[in-house]
Amino acid sequence: MLWIALVDRTGSGLWAAVSVLYFTYVTGLSVAQVGTLAAVSGAIGIAGAPLGGRIADRLPLTRVLISLQILRALASLALLTTDNYALLLAFSAVGSFGDRAANVLTKLYATRVSGPDRVRYQAVTRTVANAGWALGGLTAAAALTIGTTTAYHWLLTGDALSFVAAAFLTVRCAEPPSPARTIATSKDPAPITRPASPWRDRGYLAYVATETVLFLDDAVFKVGLPLWIAHSDQAPHGLAPLLMVLNNLMVVALQVPLARFGATTAAARSLLLPLSAAFALGGVAMALSATGGAFTATLFLTTSAVAFTVAEMLHATVSWELSVALAPGTAQGAYLGVHGLAQSAQRSIGPLAVTAAIATGPLGWTAFGATIAVTCVFQHRLVRDQLSRTALSVPPVTVSEH
Fold first, then answer.
1. 177-199: per-residue pLDDT in tens?
2. Could you tell me which residues come within 8 angstroms of residue 149 by beta carbon, excluding any fewer than 6 positions away?
3. Pick from 380, 95, 174, 172: which is nearest to 265 by CA?
4. Mean pLDDT across the chain, nearest whole number?
5. How far is CA 304 from CA 235, 258, 286, 311, in A?
């Protein structure tokens, strides 16, 4: 599964780096059309997380994951066949749906096979995935030096082939044990209670709502920092890609070592307090970057990038552990699918939040960091109340018990 993560993210890195350029220069879409396409496909993709998780509670996980990888490959290849806006929108939406669903199922697979070691497994997976993103991005950058339509076509083809390769690799993965799926016989009594539903669990839904806010660090690096630097009179514009590289290198180097601080549910919950401080520091540093010359701007923007990267790594550890610990073993897929809504929703809300911070200026960035910091503290209290009603943080059926 780690090889699958590497192959998948390498292909995604090829496409993510050039998707806007492809739709602009190859298919001839306007800026408004590209923005609408991204927004609509992202909104449709939100449904992939809960639906994929729910299906995985009822069908073999590996078969569902293989189907989703093939769906993503077909959606990518279909983009090569047309420049019709409606079709491009439809194919992008299908790809986004498959991406969000596959992301949840990969997490669910890891949860079922890694047992008590799931936090460390998550850290290793994130490290491998970031390495894949970097490899794909570098390959795309090299290909773009050619600057031809053929180069764009090959990058998109490479993205599709990565999904095909991931599907073939998934065939070799054993089906993990699932407490949600049992073989019933005629002698078994009919179930008298309905399976647990995350949609009826108000505590879990409140937790997912706070997660949507905590995932805003993603928008900082994709939208916030580049735009803030682009509109700054002092910060060197070449700093933006360097800070992205810094973010990637920090995750690759530090995600696994930091994971040991959240190896248990209680430890993961405790990390919410230093996570709160990291978000607050990132917002304040962004605000201070506008108070001086080029050196001051570079210093504080780098400080902010480091703080938000630390927050990203801490939150990845906390989110992985708590989202599983708060989910009943018999409905892990459904619960993790609903949790996936937080990251999907952030893709729509995040750009709006950081652009609002940019428009407001230094005060906006201070408020941005403070809002996420307060949400961390609130989640710390919320999770404590939820865990008091949960008997076990580790699902009752894991590989380590057989």
1. 766 554 444 454 544 456 678 88
2. 25, 26
3. 380
4. 84
5. 13, 19, 6, 10
